[in-house]
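Long-time lurker. I teach an intro course on protein structure, and each term I like to show students one example going from raw sequence to a predicted 3D structure in token notation. This year I'd like something fresh instead of my usual example. Would anyone be willing to generate the tokens for the chain below so I can use it in lecture? Attribution to the forum is fine with me.
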Amino acid sequence: MRHFEAVRSHIGSLHELRQNDPYLISFDLKLSPDRYQGVYLAELEDEAGLRYLRISTPIGPLAGTDPIRCLRFNWQQRTGFLAVADLDGSPYLHLCENRPYEFLDRAELQRVVRELGVLGDQLERIIAVGGDSL
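-- Reply from a regular --
Happy to contribute to a lecture. Here you go:
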């Protein structure tokens, strides 16, 4: 996996793509017979021109979320961090991971997608019921 087109080809062979733009794809990850989690993959470039793959999944609206808990969550995580992005014009909390292409192979990509999808689904359920476990 050295570039976004390799990621698109691999993910497209495993999942039906909902969004298929030049540097952004998305799909629904099946977690159980009745649970799916939306996953987004995008290419990012840093100031030095190095490219990264961002894997993210939306987990809930930002409104009503305690920022201190979000920061504590980020501090404790070994994979993934919480960030805010717009979803249909509203600020939405996302679980994200940025990976350099040079260390990304098919198995690692699938592992990270699955791990973020499962954790994102768990967080989405907590937020939906107003839990304070986050």
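Some talking points for your students: The CA atoms of residues 88 and 132 lie 26 Å apart. The first helix runs from residue 4 to 14.
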